[in-house]
Structure to design on (604 residues):
């Protein structure tokens, strides 16, 4: 895998066409600071050193107008590559840093790393921090003191550092490189600073995560590739860049123009630039012929056609985080030379819409946008499925088509988390409009209400009583919010006390659904079902609860029949025969085993 990624890295490092296209779609010059975890846990969580390949990918795809810097952290924080403009010299220095990423340190001080990287000059730039980590706060200490230090640092990150970064317009995009992550921490950092959070286990997922983050930092126009691998180029497009992914080692795709001219890796016009690797091809075509183009050869779903054109699609800033059950207002327009086009300058058949799909292409929500002067406005309905999704804005007519794709996180409006000592449950309002003034909580343990107190403008604490540590008990939490004259009801996932206990008191919490640890905690507007497997993310106690509940359900179903037949003598006679046969079978097996054990091995 490392060899494959190295080939892809060096191919990407020579791709000025893509960087140029991205640079021309966004006049602002972002300052991208890549903060790389070199703690000892990364030796297990990133054994293939995917971080090095991630650095090269980002260096290749960032536009020349951007600035970049590299930071490493573990117990201490270092800045091996200070902030500088992205150029060939900077990219070469990135390639030389591979060995620095395996100089492991013992601990993981995420708080110190984010603080140092964000504060470095220039402070007046458009700062984006890409945090690659396994996501575990791990400070130098031991025993109870260590637990307190880790918990305090984590709390400061969420309560102080993240809001401070947001107030200074510093955006953090966390990318977790393993399943062993504190995903709620990373997602909350992203939510509070306006960034995008992602998890990457494989080279493909890592590449996808970086493309998604860079699309947010440097957005640009695309034209869609349809199911037949066709895409349409209009006469307003000056150049397109086709980034086409394919299976490792597969033949490079072929482009076929509207006039039938074929463009292959080994046979294409001199003005066309073609960069190829084992994983993808990037083709830059200047002055492309207008009409329908097609791609021959199977290409991956992350393939894209980026364009440079006079007429571009623009929108009000798109949020990186959407909230389950809450719609998202959208404002979109077509622009030329920096000014929105007037209605009489737009195609008469122009239709503008928004679509939200999961990463597998399944539709989660969609909405048409309605003309309002020079703009198109509407609301995207709230999605039910949590996790990463792609928000696509599309302007389509017979004459032209433009789209922008942004990856977003769909998260729960409210989340609940059991404290490390098990004495409190912390409930937080993730959705910005929810707070202690308009939202009321209730919580019960075995049917008895629990005391709830407000500890912040958007946070509550539920104090839980001391319970038998051998029993895993479910706490049920509900919320009611009043917003814009509407009453919204939320049922949060069950929070279990003593989650590692062998046997739970009740399996009732299964009705609310159990989510995988790799997904944000779910809440609902009313009752919902994600369709997850009943064993997805379950602890031993939760699986035991399932078994107990199933046994109880079986007994309730069978009890009338058992009681009826138990009154008949013949029933007991049949049971006695069955037991006798079972004992006889066990006796014969035991005799056979004893005979085999006495058999001597032959001697030579």
């Amino acid at each position: 895998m490392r060899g494959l990624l190295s080939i892809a890295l060096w191919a990407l490092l020579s791709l000025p066409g893509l960087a140029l296209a991205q640079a021309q779609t966004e006049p602002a010059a972002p300052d991208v600071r890549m903060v790389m975890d070199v703690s000892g846990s990364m030796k297990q969580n990133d054994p293939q050193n995917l971080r090095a390949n991630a650095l090269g990918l980002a260096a290749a795809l960032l536009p020349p107008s951007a600035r970049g810097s590299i930071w490493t952290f573990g117990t201490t924080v270092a800045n091996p590559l200070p902030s500088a403009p992205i150029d060939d010299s900077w990219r070469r220095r990135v390639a030389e840093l591979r060995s620095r990423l395996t100089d492991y340190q013992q601990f993981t001080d995420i708080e110190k790393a984010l603080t140092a990287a964000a504060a470095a000059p220039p402070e007046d730039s458009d700062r984006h921090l890409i945090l690659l980590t396994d996501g575990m706060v791990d400070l130098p200490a031991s025993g109870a003191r260590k637990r307190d230090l880790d918990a305090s640092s984590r709390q400061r990150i969420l309560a102080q550092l993240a809001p401070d970064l947001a107030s200074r317009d510093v955006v953090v995009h966390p990318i977790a490189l393993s399943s062993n992550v504190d995903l709620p921490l990373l997602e909350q950092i992203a939510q509070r600073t306006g960034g995008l959070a992602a998890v990457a286990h494989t080279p493909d997922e890592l590449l996808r995560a970086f493309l998604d983050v860079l699309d947010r930092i440097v957005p640009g126009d695309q034209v869609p590739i349809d199911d037949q691998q066709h895409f349409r180029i209009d006469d307003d497009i000056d150049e397109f860049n086709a980034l086409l992914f394919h299976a490792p080692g597969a033949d490079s795709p072929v482009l076929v123009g509207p006039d039938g001219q074929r463009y292959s890796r080994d046979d294409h016009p001199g003005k066309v630039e073609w960069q190829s690797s084992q994983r993808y091809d990037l083709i830059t075509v200047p002055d492309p012929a207008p009409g329908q183009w097609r791609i021959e050869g199977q290409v991956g779903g992350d393939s894209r056609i980026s364009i440079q054109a006079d007429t571009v699609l623009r929108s009000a800033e798109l949020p990186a985080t959407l909230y389950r059950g809450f719609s998202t207002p959208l404002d979109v327009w077509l622009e030329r030379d920096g000014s929105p086009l007037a209605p009489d300058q737009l195609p008469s058949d122009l239709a503008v819409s928004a679509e939200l799909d999961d990463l597998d292409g399944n539709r989660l929500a969609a909405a048409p946008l309605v003309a309002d002067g020079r703009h198109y406005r509407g609301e995207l309905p709230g999605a039910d499925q949590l996790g990463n999704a792609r928000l696509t804005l599309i302007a389509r007519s017979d004459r032209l088509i433009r789209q922008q794709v942004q990856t977003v996180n769909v998260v729960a409006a409210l989340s609940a988390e059991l404290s490390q000592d098990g004495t409190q449950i912390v409930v937080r309002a993730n959705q910005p409009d929810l707070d202690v003034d308009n939202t009321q909580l209730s919580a019960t343990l075995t049917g008895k209400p629990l005391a709830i107190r407000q500890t912040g403008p958007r946070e509550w604490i539920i104090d839980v009583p001391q319970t038998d540590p051998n029993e895993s008990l479910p706490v049920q939490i509900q919320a009611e919010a009043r917003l814009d004259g509407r009453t919204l009801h939320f049922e949060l996932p069950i929070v279990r006390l003593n989650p590692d206990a062998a046997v739970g008191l009740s399996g009732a919490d299964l009705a609310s659904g159990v989510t995988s640890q790799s997904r944000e905690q779910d809440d609902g507007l009313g009752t919902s079902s994600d369709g997850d497997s009943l064993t997805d993310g379950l602890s031993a106690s939760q699986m035991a609860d399932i078994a107990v509940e199933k046994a109880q359900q079986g007994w309730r179903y069978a009890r009338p029949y058992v009681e009826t037949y138990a009154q008949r003598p013949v029933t007991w006679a049949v049971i006695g025969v069955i037991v006798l046969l079972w004992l006889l079978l066990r006796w014969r097996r035991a005799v056979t085993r004893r005979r085999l054990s006495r058999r001597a091995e032959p001697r030579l």
Remarks:
- The chain has a mean pLDDT of 81.
- Residues 416 and 573 are 55 Å apart (CA to CA).
- The chain is about 25% helix and 35% strand.
